[in-house]
Write the C-alpha cells for this entry.
Amino acid sequence: MLSDGRKLGFDLAASCRAVRIPSVDRGDAVRFKVAGVRYDLRTGAYTGVTLAKSRKAAGPRGALPKRICR
C-alpha cells in the first residue's frame, strides 16, 4: 500500500529477482508484501518490506539483479 492509499498487485514470472514499482514519487512511503505461489496456486508465507520516504531501494545491499520486472 502506498502512503496515498493506493494498492497495487503484480503477477510476476518465476525468473524475476527484483521488482520496479511504477508511478511512485520519492516522497511516498511504500509498504509491500511478497509471497511465492506454487504450481497448485497455494500461497507461501508473506514477507513484509517497508520503503521509507526518499529511499529508492529496499532489500539486501549491493547491485540489483540483471533481470528487473515491471
Notes: The chain is about 0% helix and 15% strand. Residues 40 and 60 are 29 Å apart (CA to CA).
